# Entry
Amino acid sequence: MNGKTTKSSHKAETEIPLEALLDHLSELCTQGAPEQNQTKDQDQSDLTHVSVGDIIHVVGDRSFAPLLMLVGMLLVSPLSGVPTFPSMVACVVLLVTSQMLYGRKHFWLPARLLNVQVPCEKLQKALCWLQRPAAFVDRITMPRMTVLVRGPSIYIIAVICLAIACVLPLMELILFSSSVAGAVLVLFGVALVTRDGLLALFGYSATVITIWMIVWGAAMMLPS
# Structure
């Protein structure tokens, strides 16, 4: 009985359709933040902004893969144009991946980061922009080549994501590079959520492209 319960709860934590996740996030701006995440001076009717903590609450503090997938999607979306947003994403990925490698089951993020406010207008625009790609990904993904998304492979992916987080603030200076880095996070996140090893292979390929863009951008910025 306990084994079945553990297995079913693990499945519920990992197999999350992208469209459903986007719908849950959209509700933050239409129904307000969850009551347990509101501050004393935050009113339920104030829907102009949502906090990073509210977004994390929707995803869950035990869901490494969905969180990785989500921050990557937001980094690819028009939200990447918001000043310092890539750096904020880098902080989230850095903290989460380091704790995942350390073996923690629940993620901890500092209150200062959780209280960062994201404009609802920009969040809704980003979620609408992501709806069609999310529907497409939900249709084409399936469990395959699972050896690439299980066991030691998960830690390899985590190390790559951690390395990307370390250089992401610098990538704000290189045109389109942060979006490519976001695509890497999305590919690895979706691969882990859907147990699709083929997407993990695409993630490794996108990592190579990201490294090339960083090297090329650094070379362009050096004085001739």
Residues 48 and 208 are 39 Å apart (CA to CA). The mean pLDDT is 76.
